Amino acid sequence: MTFTEAVGPTNTMFIRVQVVGTECKPPSAARPIVQLRVGHGLPVGLPEFPQRQPIFDQVGTQVAQATIRPQADDIQLVEIQVNEPSTDWKIQLINEDSVERGLIWVVAGTDNGTKQPWIQLPADKSFGELEHGTSTTQTVQVRNFGTDVLTFNDTPGPIGNNAHFKLIESSGPVQPNRCGTFKIQFTAPNNAGTSSAVKFAPRNNDPVAAHRNSINLSGKSKNAIPTPPPPACTACTACTACTSFKGDLEFFPDKPCQDPACKHIGFAHNF
Questions:
Q1: Which of 18, 53, 54, 219 has the fewest CB atoms in 10 Å of its CB?
Q2: How do residues 204-244 score in pLDDT, each as one tens digit?
Q3: pLDDT one-digit tens code per residue, 138-179
Q4: What are phi and psi of 12, to 5 degrees?
Q5: Rg of the chain over CA atoms, in angstroms?
Q6: CA distance linking residue 38 with residue 57, whole number of Å
Q7: Backbone angles phi, psi at 229, to 5 degrees
Q8: Of the candidates 56, 105, 53, 104, which has an alpha carbon nearest to the alpha carbon of residue 84?
Q9: CA-CA distance, 13 to 113, in Å (whole number)?
Q10: What gap in Å lies between CA 72 and CA 215, rounded to an integer?
Q11: Residue 125, CA distances (Å) to 29, 60, 70, 128, 134 in order
């Protein structure tokens, strides 16, 4: 892979190489072999500090010398002392582990410049269907693929202009090759069968806008259960026993027909 020379104030260039782990932790894998090449010169492997490897171009001019300083969490820091500027740098990373591994590398003119967080959020998160007006709280996982600590600056509260989604707790700092979580609450809309969605983009210190720095949240209130019609009227019980009266002659029964589907309620007249 070709990269642009980035020499710092001391004529030194740094490359931070990280092995990507799984399950939100470093893999503790075999360190990859790092080789450098300038122009059409020979690619050379790099020794660990304090040893340094001279790097020559195609005509035999020594353009640099380099070493590797192993870091924690399966990170290697390549330090290149540049003698002659070049526009044709190449790096080759060879996986020495027994399984396939992802490799992240950052080039800069200073050690701190190679420390860059890399946010990775899932694309979508569904909160499912809830009874209208009820709430649920779930967690959203965020991963740091980068070479520096990923930090967030979010205040708990409604997400965007959508009152149905609320940030309950923001993730704390996430170390390289680690994961953090956000706690998010969803309250189903009051109208049955109504969907709600919002994009959550936490504020963070990853400078690369192209990284997956947002997640689409969605949820829905359940459709209302229709009220079943009353059963068909089969028969109304005749009411004959009377316990009260109105006026001089009209008596009302103590047991009128109880079936609401019936068209009349029987009553008795006694003279």
A1: 54
A2: 999 999 999 999 999 999 987 666 666 665 555 544 444 44
A3: 999 999 999 999 999 999 999 999 999 999 999 999 999 899
A4: -120, 140
A5: 36
A6: 5
A7: -65, 155
A8: 56
A9: 10
A10: 30
A11: 31, 56, 38, 9, 18
DSSP conformation class of 24: T
Residue linked to tokens 């068209």: 263
List the structure tokens of 149. Answer: 């600590």
Pick the closest to residue 20 from 4, 32, 10 (CA basis).
32
Non-local CB neighbours of 136 within 8 Å, separated by 6+ positions: 127, 128, 130, 185, 186
Tokens standing for 53?
A: 């490897």
Q: Please enumerate, as own/partner, the contacts of 226-229 that have beta carbons within 8 Å and a separation of 24 or more.
A: none
What would the two tokens of residue 133 be?
């007006």
Of 56, 77, 52, 45, nearest to 66 (Cα)? 52
CB 214 within 8 A of CB 234: no
> Nearest to residue 120, comparing CAs of 183, 165, 180?
180
Which of 195, 118, 196, 126 shows the shortest CA–CA distance to 160? 196
